[in-house]
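Can't paste images in this forum, so I'm doing it all in text. The chain is below; anyone willing to post the predicted C-alpha cells underneath?
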Amino acid sequence: MTLLVTGGTGFVMSVLARTWLERDPTARVVILDRAGLDAMAERYFAPVRDRLGVITADICDPAEWQAALDMYDITHVVHGATVTPISRGSAAEARLQPEAEDPARIIDVNFMGSVRILEWARTHKGLKRFVYVSSGSVYRHHGPDWSGEPLPEDGYVAPLTLYGISKFAAEMVVNRYADLFGLSAVSVRLASVYGPMDRATGSRNFRHVPNRVAHMALTGEVIRPNSLEPVGDYVHSADVADAIMALLSAERLHYRHYNIGSGETATIGDVINWASERSPGLQVEISPVETANIIQDVALKDGMWGAYDIARIVRDTAWRPRPARQAFHDYMDWIKDNEMQGEERQ
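Text version of the structure:
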C-alpha cells in the first residue's frame, strides 16, 4: 500500500508518514511538499528512507507534481499541506503576524490547494480513503453553552481567522467531492498538537505550551508563565498519527468529521508539574505579561481552547490517546534522545 502525504516534511505529517512505514515493511509513502527534507527530517526518516519518495512542488500548481505523482500506485491520501499562521491580540498586533503579511497565500494553499489535490484524487481509481487534516481553529472560542463540556463536532463552528476560515471551507469542499465522485473521505479536526518533529518551519511559526515547557525544562531555563490556570487539550503527535492511521484503515466510518485530541484539558500548571518530575530543580516564576515567556489568556477555557469530544473516533476505531502525563514524559525523552543528540553531532 502506498500513502500520499501532502505537507509531509512538516510536523504532524512527518510523524504520520514514518508511522505508516514502520507499521508495514512493504508499505511506501510519497510526500508532496513545497519544502524538501530539512536536516531534522533527514535524520528522522533515515531508518525508512528507502521506501519514502519526495516530490518537491507547490500543491497549488498541479503541473509541477501530477505527472510525478501518477507514477506511484497511491492507495490512501492524507492531505495535510497547509500554511499555519498564528495571529493574536489587537488589530495592530495582528498586522505584525503572518496572517496579515500574505493573506492570499493562506487561502491559496489551504483552500485551493485542497481543491487541486481533490481534483487529482477524484480520477484516481485505486484510492481507498482520503483524509483531510483540518483544525480546531474552525470552532469558536466557547463551546456547549459555555459550560466547559467537551467540544462536539456538530455546532460551535465559527472560525475567526483566515486559517480557520480556509480550513472549514476546505472541509465543506471535501464533503461535496465525496458526494459527487464517490470518494471515501473524512476530515479530522486536531486539538493542540505537540511532540516529535514539532519545530518552526516555513509554513508554521507556532509551538504549543507542552513543547515550550519541555524544551525550557530540559535546557534549565526559568519558566515564567503569566498564570498557571490557562488550559488546553494537548495531544501528542504520535497519538494523532495513530488516530489518522485508524481512520485510514477502518472498514466503515459513520461521520464526515472527527475530533482528534486527548479528550481532556490540562493546565499550564499541570504541564509544568509533569516537566518538574523529569527535571528536578526546575524554576518557575509567575510573571506579568511584559516579562512572561509563556503567555496564555486565562479567560479561554472551553470551546476550541477546552477539551475536545473524541467519542466519534472512539466509537468507529480502536484508537485511544495515551494518558496526558505519560505522553508528555515520552516527548521529553524523545527530545533528549533525538534533538539534543542531533545538536551534539552537528
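The radius of gyration is 20 Å. The chain is about 40% helix and 15% strand.
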